Amino acid sequence: MQLNKMVNFYKALGDKTRIKLLILLAAEEPLSGQQLAEKLGVTPPTISHHMNKLKEVSAIKEKREKNTIYYYLNEKDLKFFNESILKVMDRAKKGMDVMGKQKEDIIKNFLLPDGRLKTIPAQRKKRLMIFEHMLEGVTLGKKYTEQEINEYIKKYHEDYATIRREFINNHYMYRENGIYELNPKEMWAKIE
After folding, report:
1. pLDDT tens, position by position, for the chain (192 residues)?
2. Is 69 in a helix, a strand, or coil?
3. Which residues form the HTH arsR-type domain (predicted)?
4. CB–CB of 76/82 below 8 Å?
5. Containing structural domain, residue 176
6. Cβ proximity of 69 and 32 under 8 Å
């Protein structure tokens, strides 16, 4: 399913009047626009506007009988969209589980038993995973001098200058006047 279709579907449902319309149709479908307007205490043009929005995303269907249009739920599509969002979230969760296992394996491959780095990984994805692991001991909100950061990095690898530069370039840390501070994780370079 295209993400845009899903977004449009949930945007259309992001209106109190439209939710009320769906509830009314679930309770006693089919209903005409006039009947819906009376039940909600709004004008028929307001109902037409909201019903058009719901039709655009296949939440409802309509059928004409003479001069009257009756609306009813498109239960098949409503169920499909609700199941789709759950599937997307489930896949994302499984992807995170796979990423966690991958990170664990990479850390095992690149760290010696004493926790020091064998080598700095050449592949960006692996390098970022290693850096994230290294930064677990750095406190968010605490300010570090360059010497303190160098000593911290030396626990993992002797090339503290390269790793310190990588911390800055990948937005793990912020540097100003020789003082280093850990950035929030949302700012860190994304592992892809």
Report:
1. 466 788 888 899 899 999 999 999 998 879 999 999 999 999 999 999 999 999 999 999 999 999 899 999 999 988 888 887 777 676 666 655 556 778 888 888 999 999 999 999 999 999 999 999 999 999 989 999 999 999 999 999 999 999 999 999 999 999 999 999 999 888 998 887
2. strand
3. 1-93
4. no
5. 116-187
6. yes
Q: Are residues 133 and 77 in the same domain?
A: no
Task: State the Cα–Cα distance between residues 29 and 43, nearest whole angstrom.
Answer: 19
3-state secondary structure of 32: strand
Q: Return the SS3 of 29.
A: coil
Answer yes or no: are the C-beta atoms of 32 and 70 closer than 8 Å. yes
Q: Please tell me whether residues 69 and 123 are part of one structural domain.
A: no
Round to whole Å and give the CA distance between 67 and 47.
16
Strands annotated E in 85-168: 143-145
Which amino acid is located at 59 in the chain? A
